[in-house]
Amino acid sequence: MFSLTFIAHGAKLTDENQRDIEEFVSGKLQVSVLFKTELSPNRVIDFSVETNVPDVVLSLVKKEAEIQNASYDIIFQKTVERRNKKLFIFDMDSTLIYQEVIELIAAYANIEDKVAEITERAMNGELDFNESLRERVLLLRGIDASTLWEELKLKIRITKGARELCKALKKLGVVMGVCSGGFIPLASFVKEELGLDYAFANTLGVDDNSRLDGTTRGYIVNGEKKAELLLEIAASHNIDPATAVAVGDGANDLKMMAAAGWGVAWNAKPKVQKEAPSCLNSDSLQDILYIMGYNDSEIASLSA
Fold first, then answer.
1. Looking at the 3D structure of the chain, how many domains does it have?
2. Does residue 139 share a domain with residue 269?
3. Catalytic positions, written as ranges
4. Cα separation of 55 and 46, whole Å?
5. Where are the active-site residues found (predicted)?
6. E runs forming strands in the chain
7. Maximum CA pair distance of the chain?
């Protein structure tokens, strides 16, 4: 059995949206509908279906999701797998938090335009991540690091729904971590804020005068490293990676999505939306719980 879930980007599915959904499910897909449920009235519709051609259905769902991209997301998955999640690994910048940390540092040093341009090209997969990180970090050389992180912590804005989602996942016994191409002081801060179990990110070099020296220290958390860390965390807890979920918005999150059993592209770049197992383009990370098949009442209880 499979689940087909439609999640409105806004407050509700319009009458036209609901007609389009009914027409798509009954007229275009090769599925037998067993039953239909509203996980959230007028906002999230969930169909339990059977099909002998899941790959064909998935292809049609992907195409329809692109057509309806401005209105709602469509998620197709095996019903038995969607609640069986043991590990969640999140990207940080533009996922668990609204900002890109390196751009916050750049704004602090009045070089944000130069850094933002490199960041955007990297996240769209146009630049090698390692090289783009080196270029951006080099621009930060000379910034006073003695008070930098404490000042930036005051500017961090946790994404709507992230606290509630993490609280719910913790109640469900899920292991959680953040693997970020950003920097470890703020990744550790977000870990503590959200009650995560792990935080991995890059370390900026600091000279003898407590100023950033334009380098990173240790390994670089790029796409390959994120996937590697996900698998290492899973192994350390004897978790089957098939029960892991990776959540992110950038091209460097695709490898960890591939390493996990499931992935969620959160308000992601076009390349990521096209390649990820599922997309969520709402304003609350808590909506991931709908992808897992929970309804409003269950979500309220889990997030309390």
1. 2
2. yes
3. 91, 93
4. 19
5. 91, 93
6. 2-8, 32-40, 44-50, 72-78, 87-90, 175-183, 198-206, 212-217, 244-248, 262-266, 278-280
7. 68
pLDDT tens by residue, 114-171? 887 887 777 676 888 898 889 889 999 999 999 999 999 999 999 999 999 999 999 9
**292 CB burial (10 A radius; 0-12, 13-18, 19+):** buried
CA distance 148 to 185: 10
Q: 3-state DSSP call for residue 2?
A: strand
CA distance 201 to 217: 11
Average pLDDT estimate for 46-50 = 97
Residues 6+ apart with CB under 8 A from 226: 89, 91, 179, 181, 246, 252, 253, 255, 256
| Cα–Cα dist 106/91, whole Å | 20
Q: What is residue 218's predicted lDDT score, i.e. its pLDDT?
A: 95
Token representation of residue 122: 């990297």
First to last CA, the chain: 31
Shared-domain flag, residues 30 and 151: no
In 3D space, the residue among 73, 16, 71 whose CA is nearest the CA of residue 46 turns out to be 73
Residue whose entry in the numeric block shows the structure tokens 């087909």: 4
Q: How far apart are CA 254 and CA 121, in angstroms?
A: 16
Strand-pair partners of 262: 245
| pLDDT on residue 102 | 86
Cα torsion 150, 88, 4, 274 to 10°: value is 70
Domain that holds residue 181: 83-304
